[in-house]
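Bug #77: duplicate submission created two jobs. Keeping one. Sequence:
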Amino acid sequence: MTKVLLYGSKLSNNFGGPSILLGTSKLFDRNRFQLFFAPQSNEDEPAAFNRYLEDTGIEFQNLPRFRVIYRGGIALILSSLLPEKLKTLCIRRLLKKNEFCKILCKYDLVCDIRGISQTDFFGNGLRTYLGENMILISAKILGKKAMKLTQDMGPFNKTANKTIVKTVFPKYDLIIARGIVTKELLNEIGISKNVVVKPDTAFLLEKAEAILTNKLLENYGLTEKKYIVIVASRQVDKRSLYEKDATVSQYVYNLVRLIDKIQEENNFHLVLLPNERTNKKGAPDDLTVANQIKRLITKQEDCILIEERLNAGELKSVIANAHIAITSRYHSVVAALSSYVPVFVIGWGYKYDQILAITGMSGFISDHKSFNAEKAYSEVKRLITNRNHYSEILRTNVPEIIRDVQETGQLF
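Kept job's structure:
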């Protein structure tokens, strides 16, 4: 039985991480592979893990603090540069002394599933970009297979980022780009070996069971109502501009105006569905943004804010039963498209354009910098009016995408 360590996705208070992990787990033949998951965040304690992953057959693997991982990884890298006999002695000593090295040695295959990595958008400096690769490069030094699964990566304009990518990526056994742009960015800096393009594994995420879904919708009075789901993002909000003396960002201001326009001209309820939450007291998150929107819209009585912390299957169920979705979160886009729900996106990177293109929904997007309620409403109105038409487009295109994702398992 091949032991596989999956790591990199955040489970607690998040939708994307569980979506990726649960989708990825479906790629492995359980007669051949035994799956373990190591959390990215200290918040992902076993209780949170069990909440998301009970009955999946994935086992929990706790890793030491990052400084222990980093020191162990640096020691392994330095040891790998030594003459063979001295290298062997140093690694043997590390396997006895360093907790991280001991754990890593138990596995045959190590997979990074963080969704987006090695990008100039996040992080700064050599330590950050090396840190993102420390587990995989350590696995390679210890003779294990190492893979990056279905991720967006790049751009690589920062010197530290480009240097690390060009140095370590050629050593990996498989790199799966989530879209063609990532592959092209890698090719531009000379990385082409073992790079393939496959859609996000979150396309395989299942909705909650029908009984649980019906109870969930009933609890919020949505069983008999036609509704539009809105997923606002703190990530987009913090990138958005503020007008002088404004109390909310231009992103929130235009979302409020868009919702008011929808409610003025259409007989729909609105559901605000926060995807990413935090346990840090006072720290803003998607719920913060949703509360700002709810407070400012005109017809608050026709808008439901779901504050409950739903798991990934429940979140997908709420999205799957919507008339259309308006979202700024990537995995809410995936949840909508894979459920044949037409979607309008307010995004901040190339990953959104890619996923709309492969599903036949190109054009239903606004970059957050140019997001304008009036312009957006004309596209949203097209989706509302022609919902069945666009849903049929998705019913035609998405099954082929899902088959493409499922074929990823043949690469292991």
